Amino acid sequence: MADLLRQLLDSGKLSDETCHSILCGLSKHVDTFHLSKTEEEVDGWTSEEDEQLDEEYCRQFTESLGFDIDGNVRIPACGISPVFLGANENPRSEIALYGRLGVHCFNIDKERKLKYMRIPKYNIQFPKAMSFYITVDVKDLADNSAHTLQTLVIRSFSRNGEHLRVSTGICRIKPETPEGDICLVDEKAIDKFYRGVMPNFVSKQGAVTDKLRFYEVQEQDICANDWLRLYTEFALFSLWRYNEDGFESCLPVEIKKIIVETCETHREPRLKLKSSNAIFHINFSAKSCDYKSVVRRTTDGKPGHIVLEINTWKNDQPSST
Questions:
Q1: Residues 125, 126, 128, 129: is their CA dihedral positive or negative?
Q2: DSSP H helix total and E strand total for the chain
Q3: Would you tell me the crossing angle of helices 227-239 and 93-110 to the nearest 10 degrees?
Q4: By the 8 A CB rule, do 305 and 287 touch?
Q5: DSSP string, 2-13
């Protein structure tokens, strides 16, 4: 059935919303008929046990903000389901991208240099969007110290004609005691210039006329900012988002050219890369194919919040949405 859904999504005959509704409906039926439990477990359940398990789930969710669900509780319909990875087990490529995005967002906010190491576990929730509560092992390159980072990444439906939209709600070092709450991105607080319909791709020739707003990224910039490769991999993933095997088969990406567009002013042109809100026009190749992509990065100014809206086309396709 998964293959059929992917074919329908890729052909445009099935929307993201309909696909998610189908998946949510299936999960509810599985829960209704106890298909995830053995017959003995179903017969042994009582309403008191159900209530106790639900209370424990709620306690774990409240105390950890959804990051630490131990897997022994009964997960309610549309609840958060934990996934634990072994020491030598890697997450799906999509999850790894989201984990790296969380590290990137934290580094921007705190001006740190944490390095993504691995993901030992993550939790998934499928309500109106796909929410991923990801735990990431990181290393601080300043002193080689190890830390645990927690990030909430949400993949939501298209709002502005973008192929892929992801945002972060939390990016933090795991606290020793429970603290804080979940605060999602405030769309109205984003600069108006970066809201609305996604912009078209801008070539180098188009950027030459306005050097105050555009900057062509240099090779040393790409070497010094590995998150530019992350953005490029997101650009490729936006085309293969329903076919992870296809995405992985196209890696690695080769960056050809990046032009940054921003209304923020800086002393030096290359500092445009650090703009809170910016649009990245990326030319890249993967598996002998050439692509162009528009990646719009925005924030509402609150710590732990970043939004990526992405459109990608093969070079022989028109860059309009």
A1: positive
A2: 9, 10
A3: 140
A4: no
A5: HHHHHHHHHHTS
Tell me the per-residue pLDDT of 21-78, one tens digit each, with 9 for 90 and over: 555 444 444 443 344 444 444 444 444 444 444 788 999 999 999 999 988 888 888 8
Alpha carbons 269 and 309: distance in angstroms, whole number: 23
Can you tell me the distance from the alpha carbon of 149 to that of 100, in angstroms, rounded to the nearest whole number?
A: 10
Q: Going along the chain, which residue ranges are E strands?
A: 81-84, 114-125, 130-140, 145-155, 164-173, 214-216, 254-261, 278-286, 289-298, 306-314
Beta-carbon contacts of 164 under 8 Å, excluding residues fewer than 6 positions away, are 155, 234, 237, 238, 241, 308, 309, 310
Mean pLDDT of 211-220: 91
C-alpha to C-alpha distance for 190 and 185, rounded to whole angstroms: 9
Q: Which phi and psi angles does 20 have, rounded to 5°?
A: -65, -35
Interatomic CA distance for residues 182 and 205, integer angstroms: 43
Whole-angstrom Cα distance, residue 19 to residue 17?
A: 5
DSSP 8-state symbol, 283: E
Contact residues for 279 (Cβ-Cβ < 8 A; gap 6+): 194, 199, 260, 261, 262, 294, 295, 296, 297
Q: How many Å apart are CA 84 and CA 100, to the nearest integer?
A: 18
Q: Which residues pair with 294 in a beta bridge?
A: 281, 311
Neighbours of 208 (CB within 10 A): 11
- Domain boundary assignment for the chain: 1-44, 84-173, 189-314
| Angstrom distance (rounded) from CA 74 to CA 197 | 41
Question: For the chain, how many residues are written?
Answer: 321
Architecture of domain 84-173: Roll (3.10)
Q: In angstroms, rounded to a whole number, what is the distance separating the alpha carbons of residues 298 and 194?
A: 7
Instruction: Write down the pTM of the prediction.
Output: 0.82
- Which strands sit side by side in the sheet containing 130-140, from one edge to the other? 81-84, 114-125, 130-140, 145-155, 164-173, 306-314, 289-298, 278-286, 254-261, 214-216
Peptide bond into 120 cis (omega under 30): no
Q: In degrees rounded to 5, what are phi and psi of residue 49?
A: -65, -40
